[in-house]
Design a protein that fits this description.
Blueprint lengths: L1 H18 L2 E3 L1 H9 L3 E6 L5 E6 L4 E5 L3 H14 L10 E3 L4 H14 L2
Parallel strand pairs: 1-4, 2-5
Antiparallel strand pairs: 2-3, 3-4
Length: 113
Amino acid sequence: LGVAIGSLVLIRKLFSSLFTPDTETWDDLKRHILEQRVQSITIEDDGHAAKVKLSDGKYKTIEIPDEDRFIEKLEGFQSDNGIGVLEYIPILHTPPGFMLSLFYTLLPFVLFS
């Protein structure tokens, strides 16, 4: 059981290292938006970080203290820069318990390998 738990921790670290992007600031995000490089923004289930998917396939993370305020600022910035409502960057939300679901999905593979 200890080996299985250790394997799961290792898998989680590897998984998160693949998808843990570089940390960005609000100014970096604005620059990416103006350069039209942002494909989507995914707000993590805890509401304190957003993953920004860029057009080159890379992900960047921006820490957000308040999810609602972040969305307001983002929409305001896009509006102020002439981006139409229909062209707004999609804001997605990670479903709650995503990592837990992943854990239970991978558990049989770890236990029986």
